[in-house]
Automatic annotation (TrEMBL):
This is Serine hydrolase. Residues 1-20 form the signal peptide. GO terms for molecular function: hydrolase activity. PROSITE patterns: PROKAR_LIPOPROTEIN. Residues 70-212 form the Beta-lactamase-related domain. The lineage of its organism: Bacteria, Pseudomonadati, Bacteroidota, Cytophagia, Cytophagales.
């Protein structure tokens, strides 16, 4: 009798599975990680996922019209879409802009797990006193965590990160404001590790996951450049909460903190990651708190690295998915620093494909 029941359960489970184009029952994919020594990468067909293939071309048309240079979708680490537009190609590098802040946060987390620093320490422990133009009692309120969460209390209207511009607006931890002072974290890591930031980053993060790129350090902007697949590699690391294959590159506790609300002022912001599905959000350059989720069209569990001119890494754990977009500003007349109307418009197109 037990054998009969088992047979019926097995038969029902098989009959409920969809077949691929060859009439073969698909095997549930395990998470895949590409080699770190070459750029070979497994792919997954759109048809095998049961996606709406008739919606692919409208998505591509939209991306091309919005000045996109490259677009990728990974599912379980495998490439499902990889498209290049407007003369761009797979080997060409492009700027991450503020999406690269998440690289700085992750590198800071690695330095903490190596016990080179503690994010609860005062920033002046690593930068020395007098690194700002604030009264010393106010400067010493600023922790490394405050730099990670954009709550340093430093004036955010001055983009040039020199001492004379680092003036007091509010006590650390009491005001969320999006600004360039995050760049001081590269000095924190460099001083804590006794290596320049790029060397430490390449050793501890980029080489571990096969990323190739370069940093451009400036007093106004600190920007990472890479090809699209290198950006996708970091997105895959993020999907797996800091783990690459069998190595925990940055510990899961820190990565989970990074993709959770880092403070109560802007709950849609972690450690440089933007978080969907919260009850309110703020945007760069404003102190307004907007009600509702960051992106109404995107999955609620999505977290994203967002940079000026719509550089994007969207990570969706519930779908085991990473989405990459690089390119010029989708709206050259009204370029943005981070979240924009482009995100919801793009997700409307993606949803017609994947749902």
């Amino acid at each position: 009798m037990k054998t009969l029941v088992y047979f019926l359960v097995l038969l029902l489970s098989i009959s409920g599975c969809s077949k691929n184009d060859d009439g073969i029952l698909p095997i549930t994919d395990s998470m895949y990680f590409p080699s770190t020594t070459n750029n070979d990468w497994e792919t997954k067909s759109i048809s095998s996922l049961g996606w709406n293939q008739s919606a692919i071309q409208p998505l591509k048309d939209f991306l091309a019209q919005k000045n996109t240079k490259s677009f990728m979708i990974l599912v379980n680490g495998r490439i499902v879409m990889e498209e290049y537009f407007n003369g761009h190609n797979s080997s060409a590098e492009w700027e991450w802009n503020s999406a690269g802040k998440t690289l700085v946060a992750t590198t800071t987390g690695i330095a903490q797990q190596e016990e080179l620093l503690n994010i609860n320490d005062k920033a002046s422990d690593y930068l020395g006193t007098g690194w700002t133009n604030m009264p010393l009692p106010k400067e010493t309120l600023i922790t490394v965590r405050d730099l990670l969460s954009m709550t340093s209390g430093i004036d955010d209207t001055k983009q040039l990160i020199i001492k004379s511009n680092l003036t007091y607006v509010a006590d650390a931890g009491t005001r969320w404001a999006y600004g360039n002072v995050f760049q001081k974290l590269t000095d924190v890591v460099a001083n804590a590790s006794n290596k320049n930031f790029e060397t430490y980053f390449n050793e501890k993060l980029a080489s571990k996951i096969g990323m190739e790129g370069n940093w451009n350090f400036g007093i106004i902007f600190t920007i990472y450049h890479s090809n699209t697949r290198s950006m996708a590699r970091f997105g895959l690391l993020a999907l797996n909460k800091g783990k690459w294959n069998n190595e925990q590159v940055v510990n899961e506790t820190f990565f989970s903190e990074s993709t959770s609300s880092s403070q109560r002022i802007n709950t849609s912001y972690g450690y440089f990651w933007w978080l969907n599905g919260k009850t309110s959000f703020m945007i760069p350059g404003e102190q307004t708190v907007y009600q509702g989720p960051l992106l109404s069209n995107a999955p609620v569990d999505m977290y994203a690295a967002m940079g000026a001119n719509d550089q994007r890494i969207y990570v969706i754990p519930s779908k085991k998915m990473v989405v990459i977009r690089m390119g010029e500003a989708s709206d050259p007349v009204n370029p943005n620093f981070a979240v924009s109307g482009f995100d919801n418009a793009l997700w409307e197109k993606i949803n017609t494909v994947i749902n």
